[in-house]
Specification:
Layout lengths: L8 E2 L17 E2 L11 H7 L25 H8 L18 H14 L3 E5 L2 H12 L5 E5 L4 H15 L2 E5 L4 H7 L5 E7 L11 H10 L3 E5 L16 E5 L13 E5 L1 H7 L6 H5 L5 H10 L3 H21 L4 E2 L9 H7 L9 E5 L3 H13 L4 E3 L8 E5 L10 H7 L5 E5 L6 H15 L9
Parallel strand pairs: 4-5, 4-6, 6-7, 7-8, 12-13
Antiparallel strand pairs: 1-2, 3-9, 8-9, 10-11, 11-14, 13-14
């Protein structure tokens, strides 16, 4: 299909009328821009095109149609050849492009500073679609050992069985190991998370991108843990994926994902003959896209408070003698690296971990925090306005076997906390302190 340049195309407000043969001057098509200097993602979002409602509403209308009409029979053929597309307000079918979903995609592209983006039905569908587009049967990838359990299972079990695509797992902080794992000419993708789930290791995106690009490898980065905080493509990565279900949604009520990257890649994923998004069909519902588009404007404020509270709690918990893992702490091995890459004003992330060493002690702590002091909820996921807690080894990383967990640095008692912003900071801190005192375990607060 012809490229549509999703993010770079600016539509006029003019609607199609009695003829499909529209003059080009009716539409403004932006030239492909140089990669702009960009610091604050909130400013980039504010500069993105705002879509008004059909009757002049300040919010866009929801285009709930599955299929779209044309005024002239010849137009349909021209749409299927790619001659006419969303850049000129022509839509075929909502599995392909939907106006409401397309508008949300523009915002995700602005957030990550990429040419284009496409929003999907889930984070895993975004990840799998990208990897299947970049890798064919017999292909090879290199990936971090420390990954979300679902992603690890996809790479370890599903892709080798179903697609003959294999992955070599590495310590992403060992750059020599990364270099050695890349088979030049065969390896297609280097895949990692900016901040690893759940161990909170920080990837050196610029150096890893340099290593990969020197060998002709595409860099795909999962930035779910750190929207606003880190901008992987500004640091050298090629493609960014998100589980929008987390921070970007913020309500723990929507499952969604996104692929952000070059327009050429996104368009290839929408190709009628070879596109993974087009043919596998992980389509986002237009009503979901509308809901998400209403939440993005206050993402920056939410992220700042998530990050601020996580930093305060991590600092105080460390002083109490807890074994805290948080990249905002100066003794974290990746603190200086994250500080050098992070966008100013957004802190060091909204997630911290407490290593209780055993699952039994982890469960005791979480039980007290939820059922005795109401500090948070025992639940997976992250980015909610309430604090969510889980013992990663037996939940979101349960797909990894014992050896894989050890290699990834996941302790049996590792409690991952996605710090929320409900209530006041001091109110929630007092609840946390109360639970710690109730533990009545002197070894819990032993100095490290």
């Amino acid at each position: 299909m012809a490229e549509t340049g999703i993010h770079n195309l600016v539509f006029s407000g003019k609607k199609r009328t009695g003829s499909d043969d529209i003059d080009r001057e009716d539409f403004i098509v932006a030239k492909k821009p140089m990669k702009p200097m960009w610091e604050d993602p909130a400013a980039a979002l504010a500069n993105a095109r705002h879509e008004f409602g059909e009757h002049g509403g300040v919010n866009m209308s929801i285009e709930a149609s599955a299929t779209f009409t044309v005024m002239e029979p010849e137009t349909m053929r021209r749409m299927f050849t790619g001659e006419l597309g969303p850049d000129r307000d022509f839509f075929i079918y909502s599995r392909h492009f939907n106006p409401t979903v397309l508008n949300l995609s523009r915002h995700l592209a602005a957030l990550e500073g990429t040419e284009a983006a496409y929003c999907t039905a889930s984070g895993m569908s975004a990840i799998s679609s990208v990897l299947l587009q970049l890798c064919s049967s017999g292909g090879h990838m290199v990936a971090s050992r420390a990954l979300y359990g679902g992603t690890h299972a996809l790479l370890t079990h599903f892709l080798p069985r179903a697609c003959n695509i294999t992955t070599t797992f590495v310590d992403i902080s060992d750059h020599d190991m990364v270099k050695e794992a890349i088979a030049e000419g065969r390896t297609k993708v280097l895949y990692f998370e900016t901040v690893s789930n759940p161990t909170l290791m920080v990837a050196n995106v610029p150096e890893l991108s340099r290593i990969a690009h020197d060998k002709g490898v595409t860099v795909v980065v999962d930035n779910t843990f750190s929207p606003m905080v880190l901008a992987p493509t500004r640091l050298g990565a090629d493609v960014v994926v998100h589980s929008i279900s987390k921070y970007i949604s913020g309500g723990a009520d929507i499952i969604a994902g996104a692929v952000c990257g070059p327009a050429s890649l996104v368009n290839s994923m929408m190709d009628l003959q070879q596109g993974t998004l087009m043919l596998l069909g992980p389509t986002m519902n237009a009503k979901v896209a509308f809901e998400l588009s209403e939440r993005i404007p206050h993402l920056s404020m939410r992220m700042k408070e998530h990050c601020n509270r996580a930093f305060v709690y991590a600092t105080r918990m460390k002083k109490l003698g807890l074994k805290v893992i948080y990249p905002g702490l100066q003794d974290h091995p990746d603190h200086d690296l994250l500080k050098s890459m992070a966008n100013k004003e957004y802190g060091y992330g909204g997630i911290l971990c407490v290593d209780m060493e055993t699952e039994e002690r982890a469960n005791r702590l979480m039980n007290l925090l939820q059922n005795y002091t109401q500090f948070g909820f025992m639940a997976v996921s992250l980015g909610y306005y309430e604090t969510l807690m889980s013992c990663s080894g037996s939940s979101t990383s349960s797909e990894l076997n014992t050896e894989e967990k050890e290699l990834a640095g996941i302790s049996p008692g590792l409690v991952r906390m996605s710090i929320g912003y409900s209530g006041t900071l001091e109110q929630k801190w007092s609840q946390l302190e109360k639970a710690l005192s109730r533990m009545q375990d002197s070894s819990l607060l032993s100095k490290n």
